[in-house]
Specification:
Number of strands: 17
Shape: globular
Structural class: alpha+beta
CATH class of the largest domain: Alpha Beta
Number of domains: 2
Strand content: 15-25%
Distance between the termini: 51 Å
CATH superfamily of the largest domain: Fructose-1,6-Bisphosphatase, subunit A, domain 1
Order of helices and strands: HHEEHEEEEHEEEEEHEHEEHEEEH
Strand order of the largest sheet: 4-3-5-6-7-8-9-10
Bound molecules: 1,6-di-O-phosphono-alpha-D-fructofuranose
Number of helices: 8
CATH topology of the largest domain: Fructose-1,6-Bisphosphatase, Chain A, domain 1
Radius of gyration: 20 Å
């Protein structure tokens, strides 16, 4: 088989079109790819290499950590902290920012990542993923928290790797969205899904229905109208999916459209939502918008949120543009909700 474009080749060719680029970004992306290949290998080996099950500890958000949550966090940090491409990192599994050890050179980018999203799925052999977001850093400074707390609209790159039946990387650098499949035989990600786009209309929604009693009225109204199907005001039947793994839901939406929601709910007033702005919502919002979709909290565009903390949570409604627009319209008469 010839003429297969590898991820590295694709990024180098994209960078050539931009004046004055140094190639550092391509190298950084290769560091991320190396880490994700290692994670893919471990996820695939599962219990054969003893990586399943609980670690018996809790992360900064008070969630029970799986062994793989910790292992994948370490793989990401170890692959990224010594190469000289990053000025600092932040991980969903760690409280504060992760500094580059003093013996290594510092680069001009910041990386934020959720090393194993959907980790509750790992022990039941369902899809999980790694999500990452890259920001530019002021050069020559030791980054502090404020350097990370930037709007999602400032991301230079966002991507995720889905460890499913195939391992796929989906990537945007702000020029559309492209999907790459890991060819296990040669160890390279190959461009298989160029120019991914999301249809504006959909008949499929994804939400955790067990939370219905905690939702606000606009979300209840939208879902109830979908459930009424062809007999209701939507005059068409809807299908529902819930994988409890955002990477898998977003990948499905990128391939056949749909809407995914983890909305604001009234379970715990101290939490504005379930998903983390910096590690999940922002990178996915960048990808979704670049593929022609939309991403909102219901009240504002996710990429416009000014973050107040590394582990801040936000409501997320993303996917096909017209459906997200409809849900946002339903929110218009509701009061504002404070993000925490
Ligand atoms: P975990 O990484 O803790 O499994 O969380 C996954 C996730 O952040 C996101 O990927 C899912 O869409 C969502 O949580 C599932 O949440 P529920 O378990 O409440 O449905």
């Amino acid at each position: 088989m010839t003429n297969h474009v590898t991820l590295t080749q694709f990024i180098i060719e994209q960078q050539r079109e931009l004046p004055g680029v140094s190639g550092t970004f391509t190298s950084l992306l290769n560091d991320v790819v190396t880490a994700c290949k290692k994670i893919s290998h471990l996820v695939n080996r599962g219990d054969l290499v003893g990586v399943l099950g609980s670690a018996g500890s809790e992360n900064v958000q008070g969630e029970v950590q799986k062994k793989l949550d910790i292992i994948t966090h370490d793989i990401m940090v170890d692959a990224l902290n010594w190469t000289g491409h990053l000025a600092g990192m932040a991980s969903e599994e760690m409280d504060g920012i992760i500094r580059i050890p003093p013996q290594y050179p510092k680069g001009k980018y910041l990386a934020l990542f959720d090393p194993l999203d959907g980790s509750s799925n790992i022990d039941v052999n369902l899809a999980v993923g790694t999500i990452f977001s890259i920001l530019r850093c002021r050069e020559g400074v030791e980054p502090e928290l404020e350097d990370f707390l930037r709007k999602g609209a400032e991301q230079v790159c966002a991507g995720f790797v889905l460890y499913g039946p195939s391992t796929m990387m989906v990537l945007t650098t702000g020029h559309g969205v492209n999907g790459f499949t890991l060819d296990q035989d040669i160890g390279e990600f190959i461009l298989t899904h160029p120019g991914m786009t999301i249809p504006d209309e959909t008949c499929e929604f994804a939400i955790n229905m067990s939370n219905r009693r905690f939702w606000e009225e606009p979300v209840r109204r939208y879902i109830d109208e979908c459930l009424q199907g062809s007999e209701g005001i939507r005059e068409k039947d809807f299908n529902m999916r819930w994988i409890a793994s955002m990477v898998a839901e977003v990948y499905r939406i990128l391939t056949r459209g749909g809407v995914f929601m983890y909305p604001y709910d009234l379970r715990d007033p101290s939490k504005a939502g379930r998903l983390r702005l910096m590690y999940e919502a922002n990178p996915m919002a960048f990808i979704i918008e670049q593929a022609g979709g939309a991403c909102s909290t219901g009240r504002e565009r996710v990429l416009d949120i000014m973050p107040t903390g590394l582990h801040q949570r936000v409501p997320v409604i993303l996917g096909s543009k017209n459906e997200v627009g409809r849900i946002v319209d339903y929110h218009k008469n509701e009061g504002a909700v404070e993000a925490v």
